[in-house]
């Protein structure tokens, strides 16, 4: 996540590059923005979109409505706190789409989708009806990435607590995907292994995908088999590393290239 203000308040090219550059990759790239001020989010979405393809190509710009940390949802009053104010979420999504539209019309660049990443609720507001009502109140968003846990904001929970203590309810996400075929819905939370990530796709045919974070970071090599398991060509094309040694060598080459570009 990048705070919208960080993009707006640092217009210098080398700082914009630090925040937005994602390299010459053909893979889908999502920029997640943090904030609750529609005007700032509109400007940040415009700035990120209009700088394509120099900074890379964005497939999606996402609004963070799921982070429960005190810095974000407490003092910052955004992240998961936004789930308690869905009308503001709607205003933010509309503003971000407006920023994207302006960039597309003025610069002729590609159009990233605007999406929301959220929880299933907050504190005691964690029923399926609460969750569905939140989604219903944000009609301008067609894509929801859902961490299938409630965010506990009214207790002294750390971010780690909020990743582990609230129970998972993937059935809420399955039901939303089935009830709202007009939406693109993906599941996140507790998917720490490749089999665990594939299981929901078999459990709910209406689900559009899954999102994995820490599981990939903890054991990245396991996920190198994903394309083969799904029976599709490697996402990165031909010439991918075939073993860990080749992978480390390729990463080192990439790092050297970034250092040269940055003048490090």
Throw out a few tags for this protein.
single chain; 264 residues; alpha/beta; seven-stranded parallel β-sheet; 7 strands
Helices and strands, in N-to-C order?
EHHEHEHHEHEHHEHEHHH
* Strand fraction: 15-25%
Strand order across the largest sheet: 1-2-3-4-5-6-7
In angstroms, what separates the terminal alpha carbons? Answer: 25 Å
Overall geometry comes to globular
- Count of helical segments? 12
For the sheet with most strands, the description reads: 7 strands, parallel
Helix/strand-derived category reads: alpha/beta
**What is the alpha-carbon Rg in Å?**
19 Å
Description:
It is a single chain. Helix 3 runs parallel beside helix 5. The protein contains 12 helices and 7 strands. The longest helix is centred in the middle third of the chain and has 22 residues. It is 44% helix and 15% strand. Helix 6 links the parallel strand 4 and strand 5. Strands 1-2-3-4-5-6-7 form a 7-stranded parallel sheet. It is α/β, with parallel strands linked by helices and 264 residues long. The relative contact order is 0.09.
């Amino acid at each position: 996540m990048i705070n919208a203000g960080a993009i707006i308040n640092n217009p210098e090219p080398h700082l914009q590059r630090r925040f937005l550059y994602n390299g010459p990759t053909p893979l889908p790239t999502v920029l997640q923005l943090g904030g609750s001020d529609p005007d700032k989010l509109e400007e940040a979405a415009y700035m990120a979109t209009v700088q394509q393809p120099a900074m890379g190509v964005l497939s999606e710009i996402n609004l963070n409505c799921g982070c429960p940390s005190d810095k974000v949802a407490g003092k910052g009053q955004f992240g998961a706190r936004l789930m308690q104010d869905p009308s503001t979420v709607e205003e933010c999504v509309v503003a971000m789409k407006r920023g994207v539209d302006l960039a597309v019309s003025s610069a002729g660049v590609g159009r990233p989708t605007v999406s929301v990443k959220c929880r299933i609720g907050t504190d005691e507001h964690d029923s399926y009806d609460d969750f569905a009502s939140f989604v219903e109140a944000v009609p301008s968003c067609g894509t929801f990435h859902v961490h299938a846990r409630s965010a506990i904001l009214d207790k002294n929970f750390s971010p780690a607590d909020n990743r582990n203590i609230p129970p998972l309810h993937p059935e809420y996400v399955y039901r939303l995907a089935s009830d709202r075929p007009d939406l693109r819905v993906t599941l996140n939370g507790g998917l720490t292994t490749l089999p665990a990530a594939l299981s929901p796709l078999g459990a709910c045919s209406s689900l559009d995908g899954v999102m994995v974070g820490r599981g990939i970071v903890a054991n990245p090599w396991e996920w190198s088999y994903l394309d083969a398991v799904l029976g599709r060509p490697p996402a990165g094309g031909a010439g991918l590393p075939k073993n860990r040694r080749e992978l480390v060598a390729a990463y080192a080459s990439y790092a050297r290239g970034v250092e040269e570009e940055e003048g490090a």
